[in-house]
């Protein structure tokens, strides 16, 4: 058995969001640790051992297996209809010549989370037993960057929106696969909440030692310290810029990253034009086809009295992407000038932007589900349009922009106690 109390002793840590060096205190089970300056969630909740997250990860994987064993949804109108499995949603996208949308759908809902859960079980079992197993460090450092891309919860909302959209036009039946998918998504969320990465990493490999003159309450940059992008360990920068614990490169400071974020913001803003100009889907009813843009879809839903759904799509597809692009551009401008007096509210804005961005994918999932489900020939059919691809690209590019943004630039002029 691994000695988990080893990781419970006080040790230095470096906040990846504001670059403040701190003492990470010993934590009782259930306790989390936050950065005293920016309130970044640094560790926890602390676990007695790895059994609880492992149990939830296993439950999640079993339910994911059941998703593929049953029917997902059934649809019928005037005696014509069909039943779809979960894989049919991606298959329909392929059939309509949108392989990239099929890939995004499968990757974000089942492939990435499935790989994440299996790898987590492997490394948590290694940490629990104290055994050195091959590839554990490489796998562990790959897992956290995957977390924002796991969108099983967003997909469920997408399915619910799709069902409300068509329920008045046709008969819908919910299959056992959809119930299993909801269970899988909930267990996945619970697993993510329970993993204590600090304890897990400390059980896999020891933290690199720091020079005795390193002081808490000061910025890492002024003391030649950097934080690892993979395992969060602070270390003295070396010629290879690689973490002595996991081998991953550290988070670099500097203008290059800001330029990259700017480039991604501009790309997203440009892609948002075709996403609104072209139709996102085409609805065929009794032989006549009606192409709908994002805005057109919202107006048509509101005109038919579906206010709640119109509001969901309006917020997810119009308000969120536009405010995300605007907020990131504003933050980049401030970061370029070397920070601003009110770092804490900027940090809050950044975290909000990062959290809500993935929910814009709802409309893409709605198009995928409706495209696969509503197939009754000339009676009624829905096919995705070119805007679905452009809009998915907007969501992906803005998410990458938020992830590349270096929040430490917002804190450069904020007091740390070392001025
Ligand atoms: Zn901080
Ligand atoms: Zn590392």
From TrEMBL:
Alphabetically ordered keywords of this record: Cell inner membrane, Cell membrane, Membrane, Transmembrane, Transmembrane helix
TM segment ranges: 55-75, 101-127, 148-168, 174-195, 258-281, 309-335, 356-380, 386-405
Main location group: membrane
Localisation per UniProt entry: Cell inner membrane
GO terms for cellular component: plasma membrane
Membrane topology note: Multi-pass membrane protein
Pfam family, one: PqiA
The family this protein is said to belong to: Belongs to the PqiA family.
Name of the protein in its database record: Paraquat-inducible protein A
């Amino acid at each position: 058995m691994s000695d988990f109390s080893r990781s419970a002793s006080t040790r230095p840590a470096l906040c990846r969001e504001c670059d403040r060096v701190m003492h990470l205190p010993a934590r009782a089970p259930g306790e989390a640790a936050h950065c005293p300056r920016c309130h970044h969630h640094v560790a926890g909740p602390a676990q007695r051992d790895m059994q609880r997250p492992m149990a939830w990860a296993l439950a999640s994987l079993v339910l994911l297996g059941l998703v593929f064993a049953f029917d997902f949804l059934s649809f019928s109108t005037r005696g014509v209809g069909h039943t779809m499995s979960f894989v049919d949603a991606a298959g329909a996208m392929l059939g309509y010549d949108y392989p990239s949308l099929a890939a995004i759908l499968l990757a974000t809902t089942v492939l990435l989370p499935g790989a994440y859960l299996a790898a987590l079980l492997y490394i948590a079992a290694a940490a629990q037993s104290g055994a050195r197993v091959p590839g554990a460090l490489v796998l562990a450092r790959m897992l956290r960057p995957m977390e924002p891309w796991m969108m099983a919860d967003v997909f469920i909302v997408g399915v619910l929106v799709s069902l409300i959209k068509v329920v008045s036009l046709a008969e819908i039946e919910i299959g056992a696969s959809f119930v299993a998918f909801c269970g899988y998504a909930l267990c996945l969320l619970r697993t993510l909440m329970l993993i204590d990465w600090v304890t897990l990493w400390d059980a896999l490999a020891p933290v690199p030692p720091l020079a005795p003159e390193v002081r808490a309450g000061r910025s890492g940059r002024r003391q030649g310290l950097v934080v690892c992008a993979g395992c969060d360990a602070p270390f003295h920068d070396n010629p290879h810029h690689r973490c002595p614990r996991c081998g991953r490169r550290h988070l670099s400071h500097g203008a290059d990253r800001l330029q990259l974020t700017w480039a991604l913001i501009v790309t997203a803003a440009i892609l948002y034009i075709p996403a609104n100009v072209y139709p996102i889907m085409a609805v065929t009813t009794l032989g006549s086809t009606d192409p709908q843009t994002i805005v057109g879809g919202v107006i048509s839903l509101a005109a038919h009295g579906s206010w709640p759904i119109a509001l969901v799509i309006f917020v997810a597809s119009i308000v969120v992407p536009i405010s995300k692009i605007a907020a990131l551009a504003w933050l980049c401008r401030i970061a370029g000038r070397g920070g601003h007096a009110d770092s804490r509210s900027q940090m809050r804005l950044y975290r909000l932007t990062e959290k809500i961005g993935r929910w814009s994918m709802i409309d893409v999932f709605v198009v995928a589900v409706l495209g696969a489900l509503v197939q009754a020939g000339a009676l009624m059919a829905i096919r995705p349009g070119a805007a679905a691809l452009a809009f998915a690209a907007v969501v992906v590019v803005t998410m990458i922009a938020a992830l590349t943004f270096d929040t430490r630039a917002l804190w450069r002029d904020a007091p740390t106690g070392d001025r």
